[in-house]
Amino acid sequence: MESLTILIIEDDLLTAHDIKGALESAGHRVPTIARNYQEAMAAVRRQPPDMALVDIHLERSTADGITTARDMLAMHWMPIIYLTANSETPTFQRAKETEPIAYLIKPFHQNEIVFQIELAYTNRSLSHRSSHAAAAETLFLPINKGYEKVLLQEVLYLLAEGAYVKVFMVNEEKPHLLSMNLGYLAQYFPISYFYRLSRSLLINLNHIERLERNQLFMRNQSTPISVPESNRTDLLKKLGVIRTR
After folding, report:
1. 203 burial level (CB within 10 Å; 0-12, 13-18, 19+)
2. Which pLDDT score is estimated for 72?
3. What does the pLDDT look like over 103-113, one tens digit per residue?
4. 133 or 238: which carries more pLDDT confidence?
5. Reduced to 3 states, what is the DSSP secondary structure of residue 17?
6. Which residues does 46 contact at the CB level (< 8 Å), separation at least 6?
7. Taking a C-beta distance cutoff of 8 angstroms, is the pair 69, 98 a contact?
8. What is the rounded end-to-end Cα distance, in angstroms, of the chain?
9. Within a 10 A sphere around the Cβ of 109, how many other Cβ atoms?
10. DSSP 8-state assignment for residue 186
11. Parallel, antiparallel, or unpaired for β 6-9 and 33-34?
12. Are strands 155-161 and 164-169 parallel, antiparallel or unpaired?
């Protein structure tokens, strides 16, 4: 699976750093460890994550992990995995209201978190693709303090830049700038004709006009896009390129 940016919300720093080490060993990125509600909200504003691991019991915090997760989700959607030593039913029922993808009871092995992340993220992504992207011809994107309908066929490509995504359109000179990460946004674009060329780039295969060895040209775009060597063979297959002998 692709590398994810994961936010850890845990007030026990020893536990948090153990989890961080396990995630980074598995190839994921953990830019922030938040110890309370305020730090968690600030982290999401600064760099929206692909996923969050949330300890339910947070000492010296104005809110517990469930309330923290609820308010983070109101700001930016992400899969939530709860970590807790509390196995009581009322706590579990509260947590269910935020629709987490996993609920792990402490103590647990660090590898268990890594495995749960891979299974949960894969299943959730497939679910979203099938329910939202496969049949959709249009999307309403958050543009200019509202939601604007965009035809998927008119999207050239999506380019991630930090915590933002630029959406380039066929007949528009300037891209739309969205405050969200590409990993989340990409699930709403049909995999039948949108291709993840790299971690930061999702392209519309229908608008490729020329392909060279290490670069390609999109419709109405004079600047070439680099093609990573690792993805070149797969891209050629998807485009149906006839090679010379």
Report:
1. buried
2. 92
3. 888 888 878 88
4. 238
5. helix
6. 32, 163
7. yes
8. 34
9. 9
10. G
11. parallel
12. antiparallel
The CA distance from 177 to 14, in Å, is: 38
Q: Whole-angstrom Cα distance, residue 88 to residue 131?
A: 33
Token pair of 98 as six digits: 């935020």
Instruction: Specify whether the backbone of 202 is left (phi greater than 0), alpha (psi in -120 to 50) or beta.
Output: beta
Output the CA torsion sign for 148, 151, 154, 158.
positive
Whole-angstrom distance, CA of residue 182 vs CA of residue 174 = 18
What does the block give as tokens for 193?
């004709």
DSSP string spanning 58-92?
-TT-SS-HHHHHHHHHHHS---EEEEES---HHHH
* Residue whose token pair is 């229908």: 206
pLDDT, one tens digit per residue, over 7-28 is 999 999 999 999 999 999 999 9
Query: Distance (Å, rounded) from C-alpha 42 to C-alpha 48?
Result: 10
Torsions phi, psi for 149 (to 5 deg): -75, 130
- Counted residue by residue, the chain has a size of 245
